[in-house]
Every structure is written in C-alpha cells, then in structure tokens.
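Input.
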Amino acid sequence: METYQAIAISLGLGLLVGLQRQWKESEIAGIRTFPLISLFGTLSTLMADQSGWLIAAGVLSIAVLLAIANIAKIRSGDFDSGMTTEIAALLMFAVGCALGTGNTGPAIVTAGVAAVLLHWKQRLHGLVASMTDKDLRALMNLVLISLVVLPILPDQTFGPYDVLNPYDIWRMVVLIVGISMVAYVAYKLLGAKAGAILGGIFGGLISSTATTVSYARQTKSSPDATTMAAMVILIASTVVNVRILIEIGIVSPSLLKFTFLPMTSLLILMVVECFVLYLPLRRHATTPPDHDNPAQLKPAIIFGGLYAIILFAVAAAKDIFGENSLYAIAGISGLTDVDAITLSTAKMFNEGRVDPDTAWRVIVIATLSNLIFKAGAVVLLGTRKLSLYVAAAFGVAVIGGVLMLVFWPGSAINEVPFLQGLFEGSESSS
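Output.
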C-alpha cells in the first residue's frame, strides 16, 4: 500500500511542477514530462534495492536527455541560456527518489517550494532589480552577523557574576537585528503604499527612536506634515509594546505570563490614543522616511556592548544594592534603548536572579523612560505643534504606566485562570 501511495504522490507532485512549466511554455519539459521524471525517480529507488546504481544511472540518463534537448535547440537557432527547467527536472527526479525511500514530508515540501520559485520568476527578478546597494549590504551584513560571527563565539560565561556569555550576547543581537530586518524588508516591498499607519508600524519594529527623530526633523521643513507626523510617531511607540512582548516570548516564555497583562494594558491605552488621534488626522499626508539599514555591523556591535553592560550592571546592582536599584538602571538604560534592558531582564529571570514582579516592573519603567526620551527629542527637533501632540499623547501613556506600577498587584497573572492555563499549556508543550 505504501508503494502505491508513493507512486500516487510522485505523480501529483510531478503534475504540479509540470503544470507550471507547461503554463510558461517550456520547450524542454511540461505537464507530461515532469510527472514521468518524478515517477522514474520513485521506481528507480524502489527497484534499486539499496545498491544505488540504478538511481545513479537514472540521474545520468535524465541529464543526457536534457543535454540532447538543449543541443537540438542550439542547432535550431533557438538558444536560451537559462537552466531553470533543467535543474527543476533533476530536482523532481530527486523528489521521486525521496518518495521511494519513504521521505514523503521532505519530498512534498521540496516540490512545493520548487513550484512556487518557478512561478515567482517575475516577482523575484523584480525584487532583485529594485534592490539598492544599501539593501544588498543589509542582507550580507545579516548573513555575517547571524551565520558567520555567531557560530564562532564561545558558549561559556566569563567575568564576575557569571552573566557575560559571548554567544548568548550575540544571539540577542541577531534577534534584534532579525526583527528589524523583517520589518525593513516589508517596508521596502510596500514602498509608497505603506502610508501613515503601516509606516508607523514598521517604524516601531525597525526603530521607534529613529522614526521619531526622522519625522520630527521632517516637520521643520514641512510644517504641514506635523499632524500626520504625530500620528506616525505615536503608532511607532505603540508598536514598541508589541515588539517587547515578542522579544520576551522568544527569550523567556515563562516571564511572558507575568508581563503579558501589564504590557498589554499599556498597549491598549496607546492604541486608544492612536485611534483618537487618527480620526481628525486621517486625511493629512506626510512623506515616509528612508530608514537606515538595520543590519549595519557597527550598530550591532554597539547594541551587543550595551546589552552586555546592562546585563552586568543589573547583576552587580542587585548583588550590591538590592532589587530596588534595578528600577534606576531601567530608567537610565530605557532612555536610549528598551531592547537591551528587556532582554537582559528576561535572561536574569531565566537564571532565577530576578523575581517576576520586579522583572515586569523593570521592563515597564524602561518603556516609559523611552517615551520620555522620545518626547524630548521631538521638542528639540520638531515644531511646537508636534511637541504639543506628542507631549499630550506620551504624557497620558506615562501617567497610565505610573499608575499601573503603583497600584498593579504582584503576580496578577495568577488571578486570570484563562491566561494562566494558556501559558502553562505552552510551557508543557515546549
């Protein structure tokens, strides 16, 4: 029964890729040839009986047939230097072989990816054509940061308090750069279609501080853009709360159940502010900024150093002055960067160095401190009207956050059975 199932799946996958090639009017292979190739691979594997010679002969025979077809095209004067169909044919033979050995899942995924890549030719070529030198450098820097630097770093702790691990520190750099890079790519793909709302969302995921500074400066030369700039700045700062929850969920899921309600409450408050501000400003327009490459090596190194300093400072301050000193560190570090204090607090929580009630308060204080810093940047760089908008919106958020810090009960998540069960379920499944 499994043999016939493999043959049926092989036929279906071959028809899928063959349909795409036939639709593209490929002269090498189409809707009949590709299923025959995949079936050939499946039967070759089923009959090979572990020897492998029949499979090798099958690959060779397919390659020879493809070469003959291309020679005939050259002689007829119809030569296309592209090799996509030929490679797809060899790949589908390998897919058939994988099905013959029982590797059904990888075979289906591979054939599906092949069909999508073949069909997205124009879209992928257009994407590459639209890339600038800065975009390509961003991609190469991301590869350098994540695939070259990270694997060679030692995975062990150094120094006092046993908190400085080069591998863990750089892994946090990769996480932050990765989140920013995904938002940057999405922003570049949408381009002018991003608009104010999406511009603010992507700006918050890439860098809310950079977005705030960019739009504040824009209002100096274009005062008419002030109202919509305020909207984008508020949205970007609102999205920071989502970014923080994502970071905590990745680094410390067990801490997320204690920070979920406080951060979500602050998020909801700022979303309401965004909605209230959006109604009178939705018809105004502004020019989206050209965001810097988020995968630059120098800022990545600076963030890694900042994260290491905060990690060490948190451990040292708790040991020398007690947990209350962490709030002062959160207020200072949060002025320029919320990510570093968020990730360091999550790591300290994982190691049992910080209790949950202190951890979520540290993160909230850093978030409020960052709002104050960005409001100050707007006052220095933007118009008076923009300063009034941002001061009012951020002021409400800061007041709400302070009230939450004062009156929020400790470990309140345990009082919400649904959320408690949700997080306990996720922890047990992991």
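The chain is about 80% helix and 0% strand.
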